[in-house]
Amino acid sequence: MWRRFTIGLRRRLADRLGVPRSELHDAVVPSFAKVAEIQRRGVVHFHALMRLDGPGGGHAALLLPVSAEEFGDAVTVAAYIAKYVTKAGEDYGIPRKQEVPPRLGR
């Protein structure tokens, strides 16, 4: 789900900023840090820190203006899409495929 989220975020940012998706890294570079916390009841809970940097690494200035609201909107949409793209098909009434073990030797 994390991978789908990061892909979705980059796509949403490019779309919001009017930049071709393949060129987003030339203007804005999203950076992420993710921490897993195991709760008392045994459930894993994730925290994520995100920021936008300019190209070239370090703390380079952004080449395109991005407001906190635009960034927040892109994060919200990407998270929503990642959540539903990764849900099991069973949640939507799609039966699970029967896995057939491969035949060994003939």
Characterization of the model:
InterPro entries: RepSA. It holds the Pfam family RepSA. The chain is an alpha+beta fold. It has one domain (2-87). 32% of the residues lie in helices and 19% in strands. The chain has two helices and two strands. It has helices at 2-17, 68-85, and strands at 29-38, 44-53. A two-stranded antiparallel ribbon has the order 1-2. Strand 1 and strand 2 form a beta hairpin. The model has no long low-confidence stretch (mean pLDDT 75).
Write the layout of secondary structure elements.
Blueprint: H1 2-17, E1 29-38, E2 44-53, H2 68-85
Antiparallel strand pairs: 1-2
Helix pairs in contact: 1-2
Structural class by SSE content? alpha+beta
Shape: globular
What's the pLDDT, averaged over the residues? 75
Q: Biggest sheet: strands, sense, closure?
A: 2 strands, antiparallel
How many whole angstroms does the radius of gyration measure? Answer: 19 Å
- Low-confidence segments, given as residue ranges, are none
The rounded distance between the terminal residues' Cα atoms is: 40 Å
The helix tally amounts to 2
Number of strands: 2
Count of the domains: 1
Order of helices and strands: HEEH
Residues in helix, %: 25-40%
Strand fraction equals: 15-25%
Q: Record the strand order, biggest sheet.
A: 1-2
